[in-house]
Each structure stands twice: as structure tokens, then as C-alpha cells.
Design a protein that fits this description.
5 strands; Rossmann fold
Amino acid sequence: MKVLIAGVGHPNLKDLSFGQVLLPHLKQQDWAKDFDLENLSFGAIAVLQWFEDFPGKYDRVIFVSAAERAGREAGTLDVSNWDFAPLDEAVVQECVAESVTGIISLDNLMMILQYFKALPEEVVVLDLEPVDSNIGFECSPEITARFDEFSEIVKEKATARLEPKN
């Protein structure tokens, strides 16, 4: 089983950089050769092209990111399986337009990758509610102090038994 752990984040926006800032911490751990850790914090179209260069390479993808979401407490890490809900083509087109202008958004990325069928059947999303989204190169102390906890969650999801295909 080949697994990709992908950090996605806004460069230089403290906790919104979570996905890419956690990657070096994750890379310090021992990973089998079947695990790739990549920073995919660039435009969704470029990420799509990256996936298209390796069609079918991954059985599971773990996306690690952060986003400000209404009603969620700061510091909360939501872990979910991507549900592959039907997509509205107009919404996907908006995501493409935003991506081309340089917006880095996990939501846009996921919709574009799903629309173009670039994802494996099993996709896990770890989505952090930032404590601090001001300009800065590191995550907030509150989030950085929890890197070991977050790393364990990533490792658990990455190494879990692959769900049988229907």
C-alpha cells in the first residue's frame, strides 16, 4: 500500500501554515518506504498536474491543513474521510479561478482533485482550526506544543488498515 501524507497551508500565516510546518516534524519520524511526505502548498492546478504525473500511485492520501471555519473552537483538529459528494461544476470552476490567482485552499484543492478524478478512493483530511492566523513563519505556541499529538494522529491514519473496496 502506497500512502501520501500531504501538507497544505498558507505560507507565512502562522497556524494557517500548519500543513507545511508540521511536515518537517513528521519527516523526523521513521516511515517505511511506502510513505511519501510532500508539501503541496501551491496552486491546485499545479497539484492536480503533480497527481496526474503519478496516476494510481497512491492507495490513500492524508491531507494535513488548517482553515478558519465558523463555529469551531480554536485549536480543534477535525479528522474526517473525504466523502466525494457530487460537485457543482460552477463551484469547481470558481475553485479553478481562485487557484489560478494564487489562492491556496484545501477546499478548492479537494474539489478540483475530485472533479478530475486524481484522488484514490481513500482520502483522509486533518483540518485544524487556527489559534493565530497573523503573519509569521511558525505556528502559534499553542499549536506547536501539540505537534507530537498531531503527528500521532497522522501516523495512526496513515498506517491504518486499508478499507476494502466495494
